[in-house]
Write a structure and sequence with these properties.
The protein is α/β, with parallel strands linked by helices and 325 residues long. It folds into 2 domains: 17-178 and 253-322, Alpha/Beta hydrolase fold, catalytic domain (Rossmann fold); 179-251, no CATH class. The protein has helices at 17-26, 83-94, 123-132, 135-138, 149-161, 179-186, 192-206, 215-223, 227-238, 244-251, 277-281, 313-322; strands spanning 37-44, 52-59, 69-73, 99-102, 142-147, 167-173, 264-267, 291-294. The chain has an 8-stranded mixed beta sheet with strand order 1-2-4-3-5-6-7-8.
Length: 325
């Protein structure tokens, strides 16, 4: 399909994959969503844990008839207030969509209301959330956008559901479609700053208020020396995978992508320092017409800060894709 957009070109000073990646932290203040009204929604999960997800629903100041509700799903150690979530929400609201900014289980303000934790394979939480949405929000249809780990979870869900998913369209941005390969890449020496930051934030998040952990689990988390070790000593055994390697193999999105039947934009950058380019370049896209790859050479990890606008190029591409008939 044609997006009627010029090719992505990075803008000064965000040249190169690393600066594109770090721009979301270096650009400063959060995006203001006024005058689009927001309200807090609570979704009590039905798995017997008592965990509750929090989300913020925004209604556009000028609604557009027939516009789908768009759910935005953050990445690892993110939340509804991540800059990329707010930026995409702002654009969609201005185009007349209602937007739901979701906090995954144990993320952001959901942390205090959840004993459990999100992870890349926990697609059942998203499935439950969709079943709990009020009818008045879903009457014009649903779409979802997942970023990084949130994109991986979304792709797994879409493959599991196939043609049964209620979503009309979806998009993933820089999703780690092979979890083991991505984790090894993040642990490379050139990515040590990213890896240290991610691991530090994961430990804070996993042990925060509300988390139900044994003393041994808490110690295992805090003593982990890598993301792989964290998954191996905590996520995998706690959630029934046994080992990190088994968790990564069973939950990697590439295992599920062939069964996706919802039109899904797959956006990734060739210079993403976290996600190896060959995971996307080597995939057989022709085998599934529901998947629409868009793979510019640059853009970093969830960056895409391009010439001509302060709005990330990816935001505009996704908005146009979701509105395409």
């Amino acid at each position: 399909m044609s997006f009627d957009l010029p090719p992505f070109r990075p803008r000064f000073p965000w040249w190169g994959g690393d600066l594109q990646t770090m721009a979301n932290r270096l650009r400063g203040a959060a995006v203001d969503l006024a005058p689009h009204a927001g309200e807090r929604l609570r979704f009590a999960l039905t798995d017997g844990t008592g965990d509750t997800l929090l989300a913020t629903l925004h209604r556009p100041a000028v609604p557009r008839a027939g516009a789908v509700l768009v759910l935005l799903i953050h990445g690892l150690t993110g939340s509804e207030d991540s800059l990329y979530i707010l930026s995409q929400a702002r654009l969609l609201l201005e185009r007349g969509h209602r937007v739901l900014r979701l906090n995954l289980r144990g993320a952001g303000p959901s942390r205090a209301l959840c004993g459990g934790h999100y992870y890349a394979g926990r697609s059942q939480d998203f499935r439950t959330l969709l079943s709990l949405l009020p009818a008045d929000l879903t009457q014009d249809g649903l779409a979802a956008v997942g970023y990084s780990l949130g994109g991986a979870m979304l792709l797994k869900y879409l493959g599991e559901e196939g043609a049964s998913s209620p979503l009309k369209a979806a998009a993933s941005v820089c999703a780690p479609i092979d979890l083991a390969v991505t984790c090894r890449n993040i642990m490379r020496a050139r990515n040590r700053i990213y890896h240290h930051h991610l691991l530090s934030q994961m430990k804070i998040e996993a042990t925060g208020e509300g988390a139900m952990l044994s003393a041994n689990e808490r110690a295992a988390i805090m003593n982990s020396r890598s993301v792989w070790e964290y998954d191996d000593v905590f996520i995998a055994p706690h959630y029934g995978f046994g080992s990190a390697e088994n968790y990564y193999e069973r939950c990697k999105p590439v295992r599920f992508m062939a069964d996706i039947r919802v039109p899904t934009l797959m956006l990734a950058a060739g210079d993403d320092p976290w996600i190896p380019d060959n995971l996307y370049r080597g995939y057989d896209w022709a085998a599934n017409k529901a998947l629409v790859p868009l793979l510019p050479e640059s853009g970093g990890h969830v960056g895409f800060h391009g010439v001509g606008s302060d709005q990330p190029w990816s935001d505009t591409v996704i908005a146009r894709f979701l509105e395409h008939d």
